[in-house]
């Protein structure tokens, strides 16, 4: 069987990117600049109202964005997420594989593929309306354990820790990874995920994780402190390898208790910070699966993140494969 750098698991959502005007948001009654979870009926009404607008589709979801950016860097991966046999589900598979990530999860014949309508106003503010759809029904039976065992890392997103079946899929991924000698990487995803499941996240980190991704706010939520430094020390006491992003301040790479600050890259024009953490994780995972030190991996992660914040949307328009030495030096 082919070897993969990363076995990713997370929500499978089709991003529907739509440039629009503030008046349209006002008319629909949505709050500008925030992400709102909506049901199928509300999402259907939004899409109907957008019928005449120009749209771009992208395969998405947080962990999926990481996997796609990993492939952009030159890494290999396979992704597990749930879609249905509808038009969006067919698009999702095709788009993931076009981006270089294998996607072979059997689609459901019921329900709707999850979608995230991303409304971008002229000031570059993004308003997101997310219908998780069938993605929340992912189960442990959707996992291809042979592909997991043929990977260097598994990568699990914290957003999955919301439903019983997706929790089971997370735990099985981590358990089977440990049995097979596959390293477990876990991203906390969002402070609200940490706040909802703090004790579970602490337990998962201690029992299973070889590598944790978080930002400063997520680390503070887990540690129950307002101190960034104390939060990083707390997470590092649970897991040997921690990568914590800190916005424009770059990132911190922790290896067996040794904390190193890794500076970021300058950004000419900041357009959209959405996806920065996903791309940082992609850069780190590429580095660690290609012989980079933790510090150099974090540096590459910072660079990939610095490129995505200069784009609208979570997909890089530049190809980074083979450019590591050019950008980072030997």
Describe the 3D structure.
There is one protein chain. The protein has 330 residues and is of the alpha/beta class. It has one domain (4-12, 61-112, 133-328): Ribokinase (UDP-N-acetylmuramoyl-L-alanine:D-glutamate ligase, 3-Layer(aba) Sandwich). It is 40% helix and 22% strand. The chain contains 13 helices and 14 strands. The strands form two sheets. A nine-stranded mixed beta sheet has the order 6-5-1-9-10-11-12-13-14, sandwiched between helices. Strands 3-8-7-2-4 form a five-stranded mixed beta sheet. A hairpin with a 5-residue loop joins strand 7 (114-120) and strand 8 (126-131).
Layout of helices and strands, plus pairs?
Blueprint: E1 4-9, E2 13-19, H1 22-28, E3 35-37, H2 40-49, E4 56-60, H3 62-73, E5 77-80, H4 87-98, E6 101-102, E7 114-120, E8 126-131, H5 145-149, E9 151-157, H6 164-180, E10 183-187, H7 191-196, H8 198-208, E11 211-215, H9 216-223, H10 228-238, E12 241-245, E13 251-255, E14 258-262, H11 276-288, H12 294-308, H13 324-328
Parallel strand pairs: 1-5, 1-9, 2-7, 3-8, 5-6, 9-10, 10-11, 11-12
Antiparallel strand pairs: 2-4, 7-8, 12-13, 13-14
Keywords: Kinase, Transferase
Pfam family, one: PfkB
Family: Belongs to the carbohydrate kinase PfkB family.
> Shape, please?
globular
| Count of alpha/pi helices | 13
Distance between the first and last residues' Cα: 32 Å
CATH superfamily: Ribokinase
Instruction: Just name the CATH architecture.
Output: 3-Layer(aba) Sandwich
User: Helical proportion?
Assistant: 40-55%
Total number of strands: 14
Main beta sheet: strand number and arrangement? 9 strands, mixed
Number of domains: 1
Helix and strand pattern:
EEHEHEHEHEEEHEHEHHEHHEEEHHH
Q: Tell me, what is the CATH class? A: Alpha Beta
Q: Could you tell me the strand content as a percent range?
A: 15-25%
Please name the CATH topology: UDP-N-acetylmuramoyl-L-alanine:D-glutamate ligase
């Amino acid at each position: 069987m082919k070897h993969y750098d990363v076995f990713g698991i997370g929500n499978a959502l089709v991003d529907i990117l739509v440039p629009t005007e503030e008046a349209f948001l006002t008319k629909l009654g949505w709050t500008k600049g925030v992400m709102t979870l909506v049901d199928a009926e509300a999402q259907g009404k939004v899409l109907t109202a957008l019928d005449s607008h120009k749209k771009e589709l992208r395969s998405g979801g947080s962990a999926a964005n990481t996997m796609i950016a990993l492939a952009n860097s030159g890494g290999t991966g396979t992704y597990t997420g749930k879609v249905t046999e509808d038009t969006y589900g067919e698009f999702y598979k095709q788009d993931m594989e076009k981006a270089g990530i294998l996607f072979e999860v059997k689609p459901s014949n019921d329900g709707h593929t999850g979608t995230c309508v991303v409304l971008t106003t002229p000031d570059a503010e993004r308003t997101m309306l997310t219908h998780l759809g069938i993605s929340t029904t992912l189960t442990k039976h959707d996992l291809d354990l042979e592909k997991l065992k043929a990977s260097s890392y598994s990568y699990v997103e914290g957003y999955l820790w919301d439903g019983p079946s997706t929790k089971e899929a997370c735990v099985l991924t981590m358990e089977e990874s440990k049995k097979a000698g596959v390293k477990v990487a876990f991203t906390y995803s969002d402070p609200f995920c940490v706040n909802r499941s703090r004790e579970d996240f602490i337990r998962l980190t201690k029992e299973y994780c070889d590598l944790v991704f978080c930002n400063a706010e997520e680390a503070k939520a887990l540690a129950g402190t307002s101190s960034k430094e104390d939060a990083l020390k707390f997470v590092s006491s649970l897991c040997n390898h921690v990568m914590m992003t800190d916005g424009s301040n770059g990132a911190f790479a922790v290896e067996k208790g040794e904390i190193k600050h890794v500076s970021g890259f300058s950004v000419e024009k900041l357009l959209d910070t959405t996806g920065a953490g996903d791309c940082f994780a992609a850069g780190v995972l590429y580095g660690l699966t290609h012989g980079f030190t933790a510090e150099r991996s974090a540096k590459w992660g910072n660079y990939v993140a610095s490129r995505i914040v200069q784009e609208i949307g979570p997909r890089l328009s530049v190809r980074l494969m083979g450019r590591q030495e050019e950008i980072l030096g030997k």
